[in-house]
Amino acid sequence: MQVTPCAIDGPLIIEPRVISDDRGFFCESWNAAAFAEAGIDARFVQDNHSRSDRGVLRGLHFQNPQAQAKLIRVVNGAVFDVAVDLRRSSPTFGQWVGMELSASNKRMLWLPRGFAHGFLTLEDGTDFLYKCDAYYTPQHEHTLAWDDPALGIEWPMPKNDIQLSEKDRNGTALSVIETFA
To answer: Does residue 175 lie in a domain region?
Structure first.
């Protein structure tokens, strides 16, 4: 497994060792000992799976209090995945990183607590899976505005091609959202 830090301290790109042959491939998507050796010592309590067609944007979500760390991967299709640093004490507060996660590149993203997260599906029938180290609590969920000019996220699709839920359409600006210490 190869672990690569992102431009913002905290999120990590994880590329599992993939064994391929003419029958297909095999890889470990989670191994507690190997991940702990890489600095990710998580105890997951919930797995989530979403399927979306091309152009669906989900996010930017986070929980506060009861933040969640996440291990994210795509098993069918592709997404442009975004993490926004919401840790006020961080030198990269308000900055974002984005990357493509896909079934073909098999990359995973480790997202520690203190980040808003969202993704834009790039292909129809995209299956997005993530493990969480804390349970979902709707009363603690917040939505950061995906198109906040203060963030300047460069989504790889025209705005008029993006599909949003009501909750995501009405996200809150970074300047007023409840962030982390």
So the answer is: no
Q: Quote the pLDDT of residue 57.
A: 98
DSSP type of residue 144: B
Name the 3-class secondary structure at 20. Answer: strand
**CATH code (residue 79):** 2.60.120.10
Annotated catalytic residues are: 61, 130
Is 128 domain-assigned?
A: yes
Q: Measuring CA to CA, which residue among 79, 118, 78 is closest to residue 96?
A: 118
Series of mean pLDDT values for 10-residue runs along the chain (181 residues)? 95 95 93 94 97 98 96 98 97 97 98 98 98 97 97 97 97 92 78
Answer whether the bond into residue 151 is a cis peptide, omega within 30°.
no
The whole model's pTM is what? 0.94
Helices (H), the chain: 32-37, 166-169
Closest by CA to 146, choosing from 159, 161, 129, is 159
Which residue type, as a one-letter code, is found at position 145?
A
Tokens of 4: 């690569």
Please count the structural domains in the chain: 1
